[in-house]
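Hi R.,

As promised on Friday, here is the backbone we talked about, encoded as structure tokens. Could you run it through your design pipeline when you get a chance and send me back a sequence?
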């Protein structure tokens, strides 16, 4: 037998030859590949640990240089890192204990450095939560009350493109401003859009994907494009569709003997109905 060669009886059939994946597993068993898996896991851990450290270090608070650029940035408030497009901080006021998610755009004016006057044009109240990826774009007056929560990717603005001239490209026409107000305690669902001139009341729910324009009253649910009130809260009746019939308030009437000038009711004078009434009255007076 030639050195290094197998006898025909010892040669493997093609079906018995190892596939590449089988050879790799065999190498793993021999101790070569576990080091590769360990290094890959280490790289993954280092990358995620590093990114988490960067996110924690990049948080904006009242004590950071970025926080001090705002007109006001309340104690206990924070803006997550990385942010979206943030400029015009001099005209943005954020209340206390407010949380602003990552990739949120907060802007005042059309371009950085634009002078918008002596007072802030964008005010966010206390204890608000602005969802990830949302855009709040102010040019004139945009007021968000206390305890307002938004889902992710909500868009709120007080300026829109003008289109008065049908011949001029819309992008070249002067924009139109209208103040926006969002009442305290309201909730804006994911992807909601609030257009210029909107006035949302207190404790209002705006359904996901709705487009709000005009006035939404207090304590109601608005949904749709454009958003319309689909439920409202009525004291004593709870939440119900708007315009649904209201049960009349029931007040106890006077007893028969309390009606002025009424004759006493007897079985003979009132017929069968009087007999039934007299029987009910006697049974109610009887000791239990």
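Update: got your reply. Pasting your designed sequence below so it's all in one thread:
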């Amino acid at each position: 037998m030639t050195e290094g060669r197998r006898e025909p009886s010892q040669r493997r059939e093609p079906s018995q030859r190892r596939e590449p994946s089988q050879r790799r597993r065999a190498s793993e068993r021999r101790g070569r590949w576990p080091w590769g898996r360990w290094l890959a896991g280490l790289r993954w851990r280092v990358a995620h640990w590093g990114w988490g450290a960067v996110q924690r270090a990049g948080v904006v608070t009242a004590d950071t240089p970025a926080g001090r650029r705002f007109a006001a940035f309340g104690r206990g408030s924070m803006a997550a890192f990385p942010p979206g497009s943030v400029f015009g901080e001099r005209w943005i006021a954020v209340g206390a204990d407010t949380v602003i998610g990552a990739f949120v755009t907060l802007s005042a004016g059309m371009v950085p450095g634009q002078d918008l006057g002596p007072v802030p044009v964008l005010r966010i109240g206390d204890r608000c939560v602005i969802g990830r990826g949302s855009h709040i774009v102010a040019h004139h007056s945009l007021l968000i009350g206390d305890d307002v929560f938004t889902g992710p990717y909500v868009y709120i603005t007080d300026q829109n493109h003008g289109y008065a001239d049908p011949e001029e490209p819309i992008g070249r026409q002067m924009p139109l401003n209208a103040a926006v107000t969002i009442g305290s305690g309201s909730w804006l669902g994911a992807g909601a859009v609030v257009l210029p001139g909107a006035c949302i009341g207190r404790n209002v729910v705006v359904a996901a994907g709705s487009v709000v324009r005009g006035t939404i009253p207090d304590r109601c649910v608005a949904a749709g494009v454009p958003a319309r009130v689909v439920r409202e809260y009525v004291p004593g009746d709870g939440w119900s569709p708007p315009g649904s019939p209201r049960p009349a308030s029931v007040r106890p009437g006077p007893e028969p003997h309390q009606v002025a000038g009424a004759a006493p009711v007897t079985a003979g004078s009132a017929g069968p109905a009087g007999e039934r009434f007299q029987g009910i009255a006697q049974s109610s007076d009887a000791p239990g």
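One thing I noticed while checking it: The first helix runs from residue 20 to 29.

Thanks again,
M.
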